[in-house]
């Protein structure tokens, strides 16, 4: 029995579905009709990325013939046009999850935000309008992105805004830089990252309490999780590691609870992974103060069993999460 039949049967067992409704639903699914909406939206998102990438390549290859002023003027006009139609079709600011009637305008907002960030970076790099304070252009870009996110209810713009704030600190949150990141060797960066991560968490809690874009919770908490966890890992490999050990434990517990609250398996998985990394660093820290030569052979025997057991427990934890979240939906 597939998922659709199981769900129909559950509704019948709970007397939430009449026989006529059951027949109508089964007839509908038997026709094999499916929606192309997600595919079309993905293509729209891809088209925005390709367009902005194409603009960058075009500028790079023809900068000598086009000229900086003409490029900036064209970008500015395009930004104004995008925001003009976005404001025109927008329903105005609302705390709730109110979207455009036509989803195409979401991607118009995204295009305007990306071009705005590129525009600010361009004028700073080329003309140094803010002098040596390159961070100012980043802060302005972050403000534009965040304001657009909350006004137009756009999660992509929200991600760009938070990324800009994190970048202004000199921290990167990418898989490649997870292992090799400046935050590991610069304690000041880890403190700044922790403060920003905590501020994002506090903003998420405050927004939820006042009912402001509660559906932004997943985006906010995802960034906060990565930022706080990476900074805690950086702290664990530095001198005052015991302080970061408590911070790591507290943040892991917080995000563990939040993952169930908002039913976000991505946050749950990364919380387990970061917690596992932090726990292993803690073990290594303890081994630094022991005479490792006395039991290194036993350690080599235990190590494979330890990792296999960890993998098994990780898989069981994922299954348990799915079971609990599915039960809460019934």
Q: What's the order of the H and E elements?
A: HHHHHHHHHHHHH
Cα-atom radius of gyration: 25 Å
Indicate the overall shape: flat
Distance between the termini: 18 Å
Binned, the helix content reads over 70%
Helix/strand/pairing category: mainly alpha
Mean pLDDT: 81
Q: What is the total tally of β strands?
A: 0
| Major sheet details | none
How many alpha or pi helices? 13
Q: Short description, anyone?
A:
This is DUF2157 domain-containing protein. Among the domains are: 1-34, no CATH class; 35-168, no CATH class. The chain contains 13 helices and no strands.
What's the layout of helices and strands?
Blueprint (H helix, E strand, L loop, with lengths): L2 H11 L5 H12 L6 H30 L1 H22 L14 H24 L6 H19 L2 H14 L6 H5 L7 H24 L6 H20 L4 H21 L3 H23 L8 H34 L1
What does this structure look like?
- This is DUF2157 domain-containing protein.
- Pfam families: DUF2157 (PF09925).
- Keywords: Membrane, Transmembrane, Transmembrane helix.
- Residues 10-157 form the DUF2157 domain.
- It comes from Flavobacterium arsenatis.
- The protein has 330 residues and is mainly alpha-helical.
- Among the domains are: 1-34, no CATH class; 35-168, no CATH class.
- Helices cover 78% and strands 0% of the residues.
- It is built from 13 helices and no strands.
- The protein has helices at 3-13, 19-30, 37-66, 68-89, 104-127, 134-152, 155-168, 175-179, 187-210, 217-236, 241-261, 265-287, 296-329.
- Helix 6 packs antiparallel against helix 7 (155-168) and helix 12 (265-287) packs antiparallel against helix 13 (296-329).
- It is flat.
């Amino acid at each position: 029995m597939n998922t659709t039949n199981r769900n129909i049967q559950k509704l019948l067992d709970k007397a939430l579905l009449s026989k006529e409704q059951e027949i109508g639903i089964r007839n509908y699914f038997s026709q094999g009709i499916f929606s192309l909406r997600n595919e079309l939206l993905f293509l729209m998102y891809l088209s925005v990325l390709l367009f902005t990438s194409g603009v960058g390549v075009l500028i790079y290859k023809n900068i000598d013939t086009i000229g900086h002023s003409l490029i900036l003027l064209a970008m500015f006009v395009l930004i104004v046009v995008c925001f003009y139609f976005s404001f025109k079709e927008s329903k105005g600011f609302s705390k709730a999850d109110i979207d455009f009637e036509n989803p195409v305008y979401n991607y118009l907002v995204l295009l305007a935000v990306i071009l705005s960030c590129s525009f600010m970076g361009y004028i700073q790099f080329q003309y140094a309008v803010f002098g040596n304070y390159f961070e100012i252009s980043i802060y302005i870009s972050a403000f534009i992105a965040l304001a657009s996110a909350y006004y137009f209810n756009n999660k992509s713009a929200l991600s760009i805004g938070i990324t800009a704030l994190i970048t202004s600190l000199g921290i990167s949150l990418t898989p490649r830089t997870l292992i090799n990141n400046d935050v590991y060797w610069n304690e000041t960066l880890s403190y700044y990252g922790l403060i920003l991560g905590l501020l994002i968490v506090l903003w998420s809690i405050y927004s939820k309490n006042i009912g402001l874009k509660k559906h932004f919770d997943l985006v906010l908490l995802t960034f906060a999780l990565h930022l706080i966890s990476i900074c805690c890992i950086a702290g664990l490999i530095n001198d005052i590691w015991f302080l970061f050990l408590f911070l790591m434990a507290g943040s892991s517990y917080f995000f563990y609870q939040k993952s169930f609250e908002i039913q976000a398996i991505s946050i749950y998985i990364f919380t387990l992974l970061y917690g596992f990394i932090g726990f292993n660093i803690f073990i290594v820290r303890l081994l630094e103060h022991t005479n490792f030569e006395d039991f290194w052979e036993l350690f080599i025997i235990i190590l494979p069993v330890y990792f296999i057991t960890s993998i098994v427990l990780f898989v069981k934890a994922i299954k348990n999460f799915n079971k609990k979240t599915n039960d809460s939906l019934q």
